Task: inverse folding
């Protein structure tokens, strides 16, 4: 259960040849030119974690300001930038990139592939994400951070009311980021569709891969709506267009419709991959397969689809017709069902299995408690009159932190403890992990549980200060204390990771006895992932005894060892029947150059110096031209 | 062992005739086009939303209902331009590089003519209203402008194909990029029809 | 194993007492859990029902976890297969039943909320500004700001509009919130079933001083309400002392008049709140400070120190003028 003998045997046969083909050169050029999904995935994780720290410190500043009434540590200008950046950073620069980072590392490994379908697109996606993130974060240093709230309602964010550059940074930054997220989504779908190991039919695809694929479809349809919204706002602000201003035929509520048409699916874009993580961890630490796998898949898809039909529940106080409110209320209640199915599948799997408590599982158990609490207040918000009393108050701040921290951060923390040994080759300290878990759980609940009460006692959200004597003072102080405790808990995990990187015990192939294919590689995996592409016999390839045997049996099969170049394997879309090898690209600077061009375009528009944008456009065209220019050597015949 | 596993693992399995699926690049192009069309869909939805939220005349007072001559010309230039492209794509499948170059060039010319006529249309319309006149103007220029930008990008893609073809990099066995750029071009055509229906025809209803 | 039985009412009562106990000050009640009228009471009822259901759901899910933690650990335990049917029962059948009930309760309250508003005695207009509330009683010819008086026991329609960005009208002890949206004419209603002061606050982020955009709703017994109407609908109380008269001259001649109206004088500005009966209001700056001489002096001299970012510029007046002005404004009952 620790070293996978079949893996060793396969690498013994063909590992050296494959390393010569797949290993990327050390040095600076390779750092910019890499197309290896494991390196790119690690980068996503690291950069997203950095943004989590930024956004977390922003929160600490806000909580310190709010500890006491009528506090003056922060001016309203500063506070408003902080809460806007906190939400924007957490949602756009931490949550999805972190989960896409895990997707990047794990999807090819879980499906038995050598890399993603589009390795250069993968690299491109990272560079665009990084540049967008730093653009938006750096704005704080210039006092030009967005300050209209993370959902940026008009008319407040029109030039007349917020003339500073903040909202321009918001629009341009998110437009740029949207390109990255879309690129990642396309990559995940095509990889999962075309490159699964032979024998991995759709009913044998791991839940995490399903959740990433469904999420990617959500991205494809939700992000365009946000992009249109942001483009319209930018046009209004920069060139006096009139999409949102009443006096000239526009409508402020249009902003909200478009935003939430994106915004609600976005919460599932964040939560679904995290639920996929939970589905990966539960079977391993309950020592049995998940209950009702087909229902889990259908629930994931169902949540995604219904998620496009509930957006108006963010607008219940806007004054829309009662019939519309009734419809969206019903839809918002219905979407509870697929979520409930997943919760009970995990709960019943755990209750019927044999529970092994290690840090990854602790975070999953914590997730169950916290996410369910967030879920039940979510049901309350589906009820229109209740929503109208509690939306825009601290009650909703409590709700969404329970579902987001519970539903995404707890699984991410669990995922770090679960998969960092695979990614880095070093184990994390179990003792530090447990301490971190309990302190995080305590700190989180102390910070956010009182907010439910505070909201019902009438405290609105997004206020930089409040008066004494309204019944809010004690709760605010407790919450600030809780925030500092939470900070300590999270810092413990950070410390754990840093220490493990330096001097942690070496990680074996499969330290947890996992069931999916990523555990059939070395820790960290070799550059080529699998020396011999396995043939999959079940939903639990590491547990079924036949799959691993094929890695030895097929050592001499050229269509499984694929040593004739940098090759992946195309298998059929539904059944996973092997078809033919796929040529994968070498390292190249073209994704980086293209991304740099896009950044220049963004800067040009932002600063109003359009020459920079034209130059950037030229660079982008050159980058894409170079990237796509057909090779002299023969390629595959077209379909 | 399941029959699938048997099929792929027995000796000679790799040589078995299996209907090949689409290239990953094809899937990637199709997914990209889906998301691209979604952008236009959001814009057209916004058009109808603002139109019916306005609850007053449409186009607003002072602006005439769109004339139909220029859009008709634009349509005749753009939509049939897909035909030489399809002809070119089928040609290179048979290895006829000359046909590829001829067809793509013709499509390119028609597309360039489209942009030229659109330029004159804008010049004329801007005298009447601009994007900052009112929401109607903002919508008109956003939707047609974004589409025009797509035509421009399509022209760049066609130029790319021409360059690659002339340099001998596109052959009977290696021509996937032609199909991908053609898919983009056909999508831009189809979107144009939706735009004509929304922006030019619907105000007449 | 019997857990200690805490009745719902005790829990509810304790929380409310805790809440009220932590209240204080002259602001008034601002709690959705301390309803003073049917608008908020029905919703508070929903809350307690949902809270009870939520506790049950949470306990059920955690039961599985605790079961496993206590009984399903250790090398002697063998994992059991199956559970699919249990997932359907717990994840689909039971939730559907519960959610139908929840939806029904919600629809019922939603309908009641709508019909109560139809029986209103009269209508008032509340217009949102950055960062204060303009209040008009067209039937009674009253214009005031940041303070709303309603008669106990009679619903009042509130028509909502905004001069600039989106705001939200929220007075939790009486009613759920409704947004003030440019171009939309939203309406809500207020009904208090006993007298009292109820605090409200803007609940849609509207810029720099969103936190400082408060207001108060005062429910008066009918006689008191009628007296208030009589007083408010008239022009300003003429200044009687020499200092106050001097103060009125200062007001009319300085920049005050360009933004504020005092009926019965030449001051007719409309950028800021109507100050005709300012002396009878309990707070200034939309609830950010008490309306007493010290705060008022500071506000006039430089309101940026009280409510940074608000749209009233500092007023450089010499001390004599300021004192007269204060005497005048205090007398505007």
Result:
């Amino acid at each position: 259960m620790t070293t996978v003998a079949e893996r060793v045997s396969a690498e013994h046969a063909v590992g050296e040849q494959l390393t010569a083909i797949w290993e990327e050169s050390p040095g600076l050029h390779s750092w910019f030119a890499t197309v290896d999904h494991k390196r790119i995935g690690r980068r996503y994780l690291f950069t997203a974690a950095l943004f989590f720290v930024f956004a977390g410190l922003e929160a600490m500043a806000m909580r310190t300001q709010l500890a006491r009434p009528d506090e003056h540590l922060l001016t309203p200008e500063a506070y408003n930038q902080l809460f806007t950046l906190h939400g924007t950073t957490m949602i756009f620069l931490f949550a999805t990139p972190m989960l896409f980072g895990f997707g990047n590392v794990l999807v090819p490994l879980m499906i038995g592939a050598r890399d993603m379908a589009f390795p250069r697109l993968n690299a491109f996606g990272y560079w665009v994400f990084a540049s967008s993130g730093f653009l938006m974060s750096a704005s704080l240093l210039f006092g030009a951070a967005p300050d209209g709230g993370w959902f940026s309602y008009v008319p407040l964010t029109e030039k007349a009311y917020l003339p500073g550059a903040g909202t321009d940074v918001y629009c341009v930054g998110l437009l740029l980021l949207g390109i990255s997220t879309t690129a990642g989504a396309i990559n995940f779908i095509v990889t999962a569709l075309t490159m699964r190991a032979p024998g991995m039919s759709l009913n044998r695809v791991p839940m995490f891969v399903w959740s990433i694929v469904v999420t990617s479809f959500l991205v494809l349809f939700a992000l365009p709506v946000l992009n249109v919204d942001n483009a319209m706002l930018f046009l209004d602000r920069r060139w006096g267009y009139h999409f949102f201003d009443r006096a000239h035929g526009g409508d402020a509520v249009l902003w909200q419709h478009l935003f939430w048409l994106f915004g609600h699916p976005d919460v599932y874009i964040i939560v679904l991959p995290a639920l996929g993580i939970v589905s990966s961890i539960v079977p391993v630490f309950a020592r049995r397969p998940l209950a009702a796998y087909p229902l889990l898949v259908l629930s994931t898809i169902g949540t995604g689809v219904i998620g496009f039909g509930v957006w108006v529940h963010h607008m219940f106080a806007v004054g829309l017709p009662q019939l519309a409110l009734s419809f969206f209320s019903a839809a918002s209640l219905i979407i509870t069902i697929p979520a409930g199915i997943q919760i009970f599948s995990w709960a019943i799997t755990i209750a019927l299995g044999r529970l092994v408590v290690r840090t990854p599982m602790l975070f999953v158990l914590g997730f169950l408690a916290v996410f369910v609490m967030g879920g039940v207040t979510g049901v309350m918000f589906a009820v229109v009159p209740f929503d109208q009393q509690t939306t825009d108050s601290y009650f909703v701040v409590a709700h969404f932190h329970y579902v987001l921290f519970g539903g995404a951060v707890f699984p991410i923390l669990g995922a770090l403890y679960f998969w960092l040994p695979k990614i880095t080759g070093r184990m994390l300290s179990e003792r530090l992990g447990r301490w971190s878990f309990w302190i995080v759980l305590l700190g989180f609940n102390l910070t956010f549980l009182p907010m439910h009460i505070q909201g019902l006692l009438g405290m609105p959200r997004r206020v930089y200060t409040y008066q004494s004597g309204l019944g809010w003072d004690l709760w605010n102080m407790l919450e600030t204390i809780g925030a500092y405790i939470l900070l300590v808990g999270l810092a413990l995990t950070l410390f754990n990771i840093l220490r493990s990187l330096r001097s942690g015990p070496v990680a074996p192939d499969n330290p947890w006895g996992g069931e999916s294919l990523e555990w059939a590689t070395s820790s960290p995996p070799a550059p080529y992932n699998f020396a011999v592409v396995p043939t999959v016999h079940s939903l639990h390839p590491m547990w079924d005894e036949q799959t691993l045997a094929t890695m030895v049996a097929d050592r001499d099969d050229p269509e499984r060892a694929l040593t004739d170049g940098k090759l992946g394997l195309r298998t059929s879309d539904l059944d996973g029947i092997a078809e033919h090898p796929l040529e994968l690209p070498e390292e190249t600077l073209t994704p980086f150059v293209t991304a740099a061009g896009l950044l220049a375009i963004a800067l040009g528009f932002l600063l109003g110096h359009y020459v920079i944008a034209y130059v950037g456009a030229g660079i982008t065209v050159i980058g894409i031209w170079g990237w796509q220019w057909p090779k002299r050597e023969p390629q595959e015949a077209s379909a | 062992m399941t029959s699938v596993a048997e099929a792929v693992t027995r000796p000679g399995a790799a040589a078995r005739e299996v209907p090949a699926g689409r290239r990953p690049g094809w899937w990637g192009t199709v997914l990209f086009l889906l998301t691209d069309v979604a952008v236009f869909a959001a814009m057209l939805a916004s058009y109808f939303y603002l139109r019916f939220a306005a609850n007053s005349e449409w186009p607003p007072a002072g602006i005439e209902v769109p004339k139909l001559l220029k859009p008709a010309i634009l349509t005749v230039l753009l939509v049939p331009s897909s035909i030489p492209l399809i002809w070119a794509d089928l040609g290179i499948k048979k290895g006829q590089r000359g046909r590829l170059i001829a067809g793509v060039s013709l499509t390119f010319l028609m597309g360039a003519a489209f942009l030229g006529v659109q330029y004159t249309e804008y010049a004329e319309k801007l005298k009447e209203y601009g994007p900052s006149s009112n929401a109607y103007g903002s919508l008109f220029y956003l939707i047609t402008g974004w589409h025009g930008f797509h035509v421009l990008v399509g022209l760049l893609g066609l130029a790319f194909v021409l360059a690659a073809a002339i340099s001998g990099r596109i052959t009977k066995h290696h021509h996937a990029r032609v199909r991908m750029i053609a898919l983009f071009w056909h999508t831009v055509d189809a979107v144009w029809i939706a735009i004509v229906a929304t922006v030019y025809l619907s105000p007449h209803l | 194993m019997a857990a200690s039985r805490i009745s719902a009412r005790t829990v509810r009562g304790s929380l409310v007492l805790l809440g009220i106990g932590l209240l204080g000050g002259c602001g008034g009640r601002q709690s959705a859990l301390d309803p003073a009228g049917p608008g908020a009471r029905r919703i508070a009822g929903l809350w307690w029902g949902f809270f009870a259901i939520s506790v049950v759901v949470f306990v059920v899910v955690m039961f599985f976890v605790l079961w496993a933690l206590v009984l399903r650990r250790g090398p002697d335990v063998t994992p059991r297969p199956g559970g699919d049917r249990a997932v359907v029962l717990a994840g689909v059948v039971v939730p559907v039943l519960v959610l139908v009930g929840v939806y029904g309760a919600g629809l019922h309250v939603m309908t009641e909320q709508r019909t109560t508003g139809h029986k209103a005695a009269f209508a008032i207009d509340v217009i949102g500004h950055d960062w204060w509330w303009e209040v008009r009683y067209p039937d009674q010819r009253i214009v005031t700001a940041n303070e709303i008086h309603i008669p106990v026991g009679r619903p009042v329609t509130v028509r909502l509009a905004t001069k600039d960005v989106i705001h939200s009208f929220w007075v939790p002890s009486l009613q759920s919130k409704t947004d003030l949206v440019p171009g939309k004419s939203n309406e809500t209603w207020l009904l208090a079933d006993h007298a009292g002061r109820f605090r409200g606050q803007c609940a849609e982020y509207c810029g720099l001083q969103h936190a400082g955009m408060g207001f108060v709703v005062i429910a008066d017994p009918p006689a008191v309400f009628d007296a208030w109407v009589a007083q408010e609908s008239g022009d300003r109380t003429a200044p009687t002392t020499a200092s106050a008269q001097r103060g009125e001259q200062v007001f009319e001649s300085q920049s005050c008049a360009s933004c504020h109206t005092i009926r019965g004088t030449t001051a007719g500005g409309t950028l800021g709140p109507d100050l005709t009966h300012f002396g009878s209001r309990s707070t200034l700056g939309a609830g950010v400070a008490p309306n007493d001489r010290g705060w008022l002096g500071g506000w006039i001299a430089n309101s940026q120190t009280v409510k940074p970012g608000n749209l009233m510029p500092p007023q450089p007046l010499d001390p004599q003028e300021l004192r007269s002005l204060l005497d005048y404004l205090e007398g505007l009952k």
Notes: Chain A touches chain C through 90 residues (CB under 8 Å). Residues 76-110 of chain A form the longest helix (35 residues). The beta strands of chain A are 567-571, 578-583.
